[in-house]
């Protein structure tokens, strides 16, 4: 079993390196968001020729109670290129490309909490940033520190412009019967049943 895990890890690392090389060659802008308390990964890109693309990947695990196994389910939703272009322009206006380690609030620590993950392309390299417990502004948790307000505005923009809740509802409506789960941080899982 460990050998299989190592093989998958090696394949994943190799694919990541290949993807990074592809990104640096023809993509001028690349943003990836993994929202807190959400099974969604949102990817936005702009190529040299100003073609904008965006996708929402919904990643779920389907439980099989008979033999206690899980099957990974990935659903890809294409986003409207005009809205992707608008959101990329707005993210630039909100200065997402200036994000750095100083944005992180190390004075607040969450045990086993979820994190907003942002990846962006800068100088041909994908930078990754994690922000503990940053949710879109529609949630009950509204940030009050200037840098965290800015980070929350990015998550809110993504959530609202692409109607992430509506995308999730459409994905759910097309699932087969069964129990589906997704991760909420280090130890928590959110499950729902499709009947």
TrEMBL record:
Q: Is-annotated flag, keyword Signal?
A: yes
Q: Which UniProt keywords apply?
A: Signal
Q: Where does the secretion signal sit in this chain?
A: 1-20
Q: What is this protein called?
A: GLPGLI family protein
Species for this entry: Chryseobacterium taihuense
């Amino acid at each position: 079993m460990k050998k299989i895990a190592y093989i998958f890890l090696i394949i994943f690392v190799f694919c990541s390196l290949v993807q990074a090389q592809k990104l640096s060659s023809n993509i001028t802008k690349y943003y990836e968001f993994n929202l807190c308390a959400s099974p969604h990964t949102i990817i936005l890109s702009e190529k040299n020729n100003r073609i904008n693309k965006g996708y929402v990947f919904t990643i779920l695990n389907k439980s099989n109670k008979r033999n206690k196994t899980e099957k990974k389910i990935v659903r890809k939703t294409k986003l409207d290129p005009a809205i992707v272009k608008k959101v990329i322009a707005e993210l630039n206006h909100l200065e997402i490309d200036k994000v750095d380690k100083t944005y992180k609030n190390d004075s607040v620590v969450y045990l086993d909490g979820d994190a907003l993950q942002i990846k962006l392309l800068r100088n041909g390299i994908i930078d990754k940033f994690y922000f503990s417990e940053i949710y879109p502004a529609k949630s009950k948790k509204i940030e009050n520190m200037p840098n965290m307000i800015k980070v929350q505005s990015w998550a809110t923009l993504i959530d609202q412009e692409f109607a992430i809740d509506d995308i999730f509802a459409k994905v759910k409506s097309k699932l087969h019967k069964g129990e589906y789960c997704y991760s909420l941080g280090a130890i928590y899982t959110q499950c729902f049943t499709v009947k």
